[in-house]
Amino acid sequence: MSFAYSRTIHFADTDAAGVVYFARYLSICHEAYEEALAAAGIDIKNFFSATGVMIPVSRSETKYLRPLVVGDKILVNARPEFITENTYAVRYEIVKLGKVEKLIAEARTEHVCIDAKTRERQPLPHHLAAWVNQTTTQV
């Protein structure tokens, strides 16, 4: 099951050519990721301090299919996927809304759970693992 995040494209998202700057696609995906965690009941404000772990992005890729401009309404579908006990990925589909919905971009980020002090890999905290596994098994 994926999480849907709606958003409007703003001036700050665009470059001098008037289209969304390529790096902003990942920022928008990360917004969807944070909203998905919050919707799952994960307290993102205190998440890292409460668990003693960090979960950096270890890999990202984006496929750009069509441009976006200021005022475009989009929907970002975010779906986590289990990889190992300490890693997971999130797949994103960015869709432009309108009379005809169009797939604009596809992205994927991989995340690794590490101890905040030692930087050694750690198993995902139970509430995060439950989110990843629940979503993965509902696909």
Provide a descriptive summary of the structure in words.
There is one protein chain. By secondary structure, the protein is an alpha+beta fold. It has a single domain (3-137), classed as Roll (Thiol Ester Dehydrase, Chain A). Helix content is 25%, strand content 37%. The chain has three helices and seven strands, in the order E-H-H-E-E-E-E-E-E-H. It has helices at residues 22-39, 47-51, 126-137; strands at residues 3-8, 53-54, 57-64, 73-84, 87-96, 102-112, 114-115. The protein has a five-stranded antiparallel sheet. Strands 2-7 form a two-stranded antiparallel ribbon. A hairpin with a 2-residue loop joins strand 4 (73-84) and strand 5. The mean pLDDT is 94.
Sum up the structure in keywords.
single chain, 139 residues, alpha+beta, Thiol Ester Dehydrase, Chain A, 5-stranded antiparallel beta sheet, 3 helices, 37% strand, elongated
| CATH H-level homologous superfamily name | Hotdog Thioesterase
Rg from Cα: 16 Å
- What is the share of helical residues? 25-40%
Strand segment tally: 7
Structure, briefly:
The chain has 139 residues and is α+β, with helices and mostly antiparallel strands. Helices cover 25% and strands 37% of the residues. The termini are close together.
